[in-house]
TrEMBL record:
GO BP annotation list: RNA catabolic process
Active-site residues, Swiss-Prot/TrEMBL: H80, E139, H143
Protein source organism: Aegilops tauschii subsp. strangulata (Goatgrass)
One protein family per Pfam: Ribonuclease_T2
Protein's recorded name: Uncharacterized protein
Keyword vocabulary terms for this entry: Disulfide bond, Endonuclease, Hydrolase, Lyase, Nuclease, Signal
Residue numbers spanned by region Disordered: 259-280
Annotated signal peptide: 1-29
Basic and acidic residues: compositionally biased ranges: 262-272
Gene Ontology cellular-component terms listed: extracellular region
Family designation: Belongs to the RNase T2 family.
Length: 280
């Protein structure tokens, strides 16, 4: 676990224990209302989308649950998660310890989720408090539960994310600006940001891995109107140079199909590290 996250967890649990008095100056300086909100709610949403072509380069073995392994490669941004955020940095997580993920509530959405919100890894991901489950259970438990009361249950969570994803169609916006997945082709980050700004009137936040776009994030007010993604949304990543985007980036095509020789890397790399690192 990285240090920022551990630190933040500690802060949050301190708040929880009403030990705010012990917190360092920065937090104490914020208005009382702000402190209260830290426990009671959140300020805006981040809709995190991932670029399979980049994520799937880390795949070293295949399994049926891994979207990277499909015979029809995913050549569009897929959903990573909808994340409630605090406007001054940080985010709540694991907000309702007693609720377990109920797949039945989203059974109707499953075919759409398979297409637009697939797991890009093999194996279960962590849920809160030591549990493990499918990728969806992870996103719901870690982030979805913190959207209450705006987000009431699993159905609400997944359908809200899908609604935003289809209304603010990033793949379409980029195509309009002639930005397509293509191996080796480089695009200026400014060109990508402008394309999104032009389409939705707000600035996205990009996360890269080794010179390729790994995530594109859109930000929304609580009423689901788009807002700029601010520097506070970068905070979690700023400690990690690896997420930094150079001026020119690629959008590699997803072409794994079956994990073929040459794509296989050592086993340690199969751990979804980008996940463990921060938000997810
Ligand atoms: C993937 O591998 C399986 C078994 O090894 C094979 O039957 C299937 O045709 C392969 N699919 C693709 C897209 O290569
Ligand atoms: C986004 O737009 C593309 C291109 O027009 C389209 O194929 C895709 O179905 C759209 N995605 C959603 C979720 O509506
Ligand atoms: C990083 O990108 C370079 C150039 O695109 C490539 O040659 C190299 O294999 C990549 N490294 C990893 C770990 O993916």
């Amino acid at each position: 676990m990285d240090r920022t996250r551990r630190g933040r967890r500690l802060l949050v649990s301190l708040c929880f224990l009403c030990l705010a008095v012990l917190l360092p100056g920065a937090l104490l300086a914020s208005p009382a209302a702000g402190r209260k909100r830290r426990q009671a709610g959140f300020d805006h949403y981040v809709l995190a989308l991932q670029w399979p072509g980049t994520v799937c380069r880390q795949t070293n073995h295949c399994c049926s649950s891994n979207g990277c392994c499909r015979s029809n490669p995913l050549n569009w941004f897929t959903i990573h998660g909808l994340w409630p955020q605090y406007s001054y940095g940080g985010w709540p997580s694991c907000c309702r310890p007693t609720t377990t993920f109920n797949m039945n509530k989203i059974a109707m959405l499953k075919p759409i989720l398979e297409k637009y919100w697939p797991s890009l890894y093999c194996g279960d991901t962590s849920t809160c408090f030591g549990g493990r489950g499918p990728f969806w259970a992870h996103e719901w438990a870690t982030h979805g539960t913190c959207g209450y009361p705006e987000i009431q249950d699993e159905y609400d969570y997944f359908s809200t994310a899908l609604y935003l994803y289809s209304k603010y169609n990033v793949t379409k916006a980029l195509r309009k600006a002639h930005i397509y997945p293509r191996n080796g082709r480089k695009y200026a980050v400014a060109h990508i940001v402008d394309a999104i700004d032009h389409a939705f009137g707000r600035l996205p936040h990009l996360v890269c891995k080794n010179g390729s776009v790994q995530e594109l994030r859109l930000c929304f007010h609580k009423d689901y109107q788009p807002r700029d993604c601010g520097s506070e949304d970068d905070e979690a990543w700023s400690s990690s140079r690896r997420s930094h985007c150079p001026r020119y980036v690629t959008l590699p095509q997803s072409a794994l199909g079956n994990a073929t020789e040459g794509r296989l890397r050592n086993r340690a790399e199969n751990v979804p590290r980008a996940h463990g690192q921060s938000y997810v």
